[in-house]
Predict the structure.
Amino acid sequence: EQELGARGHALTADETFREIFDDGVAQTGAALTRTGALLGATPGLANELDDVRARLADWQRAVAEPSFDERPEVRAEVASAEFQETALTLIQAVRAEIDQLADRVDAEMAAGAGALRDAGATVTRVVIVQIAGVVLLGTLIVAALSRQVVAPLRRLGQDARAVAAGDLTHGVVGRGPPELEQLGGDVESMRRRILA
């Protein structure tokens, strides 16, 4: 809107274009402030925003300010085709700086998104390894319990059932943890007392 306001006033001297220009200045200032706040943590991008501000200031000094100058000699100059050509060149430089900044912002966002994806993949791999570790540990614990407790308890139960079924010649031996050995010994003592 700044360009429209300046060009319109330069060619027509209509004050309506000053309002359009002033609105454009306010909107541009607000947009630059918001953008600066967003880019402030990224020095390269903040520098490019400063380049946009510099090109805009160049255009405002060379084009906008003279466009609102009421002196007849300045009015004639700003209405000339040469001045309008210079104004167009300068505003294109502003747009080029804006486009360059937008491209850099897009590139930074893409790089950030890529880094975020990579971090997510790394976290996923770490979680999978941790889950695999927990499953392996659980399997080892179950195997150890089975070998150290369940299997000896099963053998002791078979021995005790054989004696209970009437085979008093079947010896009972407790194997495994001390408690199972003691239980086996107690059952064996009971079997021997029955035989005696």
Remarks:
- The mean pLDDT is 89.
- The radius of gyration is 44 Å.
